[in-house]
Amino acid sequence: MEKRKIIQIFILLFVSVACGSLEKMNSGKKGDDIFIDAEFNIENARQQEANGWAKMAEIIVRINPPSFPDNIVELTEFGGKGDGKTDNLPFFEKAIISLAEKGGGKLVVSPGTYWVDGPIVMKSNIHIEIQQNAIIRFSSNPASYTPLVKQRWEGTVCYNYSPLINGHNLTNIALTGEGTIDGAGGDWSRSWKEKQEPDKAILRKMGHDRIPDEQRVFGNGFLDLDGDGKDDGYGDGEPHYLRPSLIQFYECENILLEGLTITGSPFWTVHPVFCKNVIGRNLTITSDGSPNDDGFDPESCEDVLIEGCIINTRDDAISVKAGRDQDAWNRPPSRNIIVRNNTLISGANAFCIGSEMSGGVENVFVENNTIVKGGNALKFKSNLDRGGFIRSVFIRNINVSSCKQSLVDFTTDYHGYRGGNYPVDFRDIYISGVTCENVGRMAFEIVGVESKPIQRVYLNNIQVQKADRTSNIKYAKDILFHEVTVDGDLVVAEAFPL
């Protein structure tokens, strides 16, 4: 062990935290029932960690798959053709409506390639089973994804082209089977990314100014909510370039996604928003190289289980989100999220929270995951526009092969900053039982802001075989290392008060 290295880390922590200033915890706020101004040491941290994992056991019993009536129909009964050429959208519509009129049931998609020119719109109590060797392949014609629907785009609510599979205000919906959903997003999302910046800037200003949702009209610039055939008054009739998600359920409850291969998303792949009781199980989510192809992004959702999935994406594999900036401050948080037994491969972040997290994220449990590759393995990202909080996060038993940047990274200056001064409240993060073979840059990057230091991070039983640098810790209080080694050297840091 290198005594010099230990001393350097010790001094770095002391200097860094001394530069910050601590705001006391607001006792009694939602989520503070476990952590209230307790002395932070190894014994206490272990107890708080144990209390947190006990809470996960209470959450998991509430997360259950939906149930459906026994009605079963086949897409082919309604004219469906798996020839790769016929537009099957009208057949999906007929089948879903027919089942819904019977109170719900299962729609079976048998082997074949079913081309669909437009969005599949789910209804309550509908279960679509895509069988092995069945492929649903969507068209690459954005104009087909109308009428516009309400959704969240990078954390801000708006009306935009429909997600390829969507549903609003539904209960009991499922997509299962051993087949494939192919969004064919690469055919158009690369060119749209280059064109989307003006629309993105306009939408973010609308969110900042809290413009009414119905006035945020993108897509083809035409929104007719009252059904009179005329624009409601806020569309400009011009084309816009905000890419839709592949699967987005909005304000839905009791959702199951299981067994499928999902690929080719034009934007975020699986994106439940304002949903409750969501299960993503044994999915294979892959990239076709399109930008912003996040794998599974629960946003402002409650009681979510993501397990047994293989996610290989160019962008974040799994990202827990809760909206962007002022637009999210009065909307629901994300809470009670369980991520376990997954294999994650990412060109960006394997598991992350943010950067859209302004409604708040709490009670997140991540265990028994394998990270094959990521820019960062475990990432917490925000900037000074966001506000909100990330707290009560529990991570254990993670095996990391390689990450290009950092093993654990807290970023409070994420790109896209618009000049605000609303620091995020980061606190109570517990990470134990992590092994990592190689870190390209920095094992631990924990950088808060002077007015709102990152508080109470417990790093326990972590072994990093190789890293270019050990740590950069600044504007942080109570960063506690225990049995952490980097390059064979023990990392020693006390829980310094400010």
From TrEMBL:
Which residues belong to any copy of the Rhamnogalacturonase A/B/Epimerase-like pectate lyase domain?
74-128
Instruction: Note the Pfam families from the entry.
Output: Glyco_hydro_28 (PF00295), Pect-lyase_RHGA_epim (PF12708)
Q: Which InterPro entries match?
A: GH28_Enzymes, Glyco_hydro_28, PbH1, Pectin_lyas_fold, Pectin_lyase_fold/virulence, RHGA/B-epi-like_pectate_lyase
Domain of life of the native organism: Bacteria
Classification via Gene3D superfamilies: Single-stranded right-handed beta-helix, Pectin lyase-like
Set out the biological process GO terms recorded for this chain's protein: carbohydrate metabolic process
UniProt entry tagged with the keyword Ribonucleoprotein: no
GO MF, one term, reads: polygalacturonase activity
Which residues, if any, are the signal sequence? Answer: none
Q: Which UniProt keywords apply?
A: Glycosidase, Hydrolase
Q: Family, per the entry? A: Belongs to the glycosyl hydrolase 28 family.
Fetch the PANTHER family from UniProt: PECTIN LYASE-RELATED, PLASMIN AND FIBRONECTIN-BINDING PROTEIN A
Please identify the protein, giving its name as recorded: Polygalacturonase
Organism this protein belongs to: Marinilabilia salmonicolor
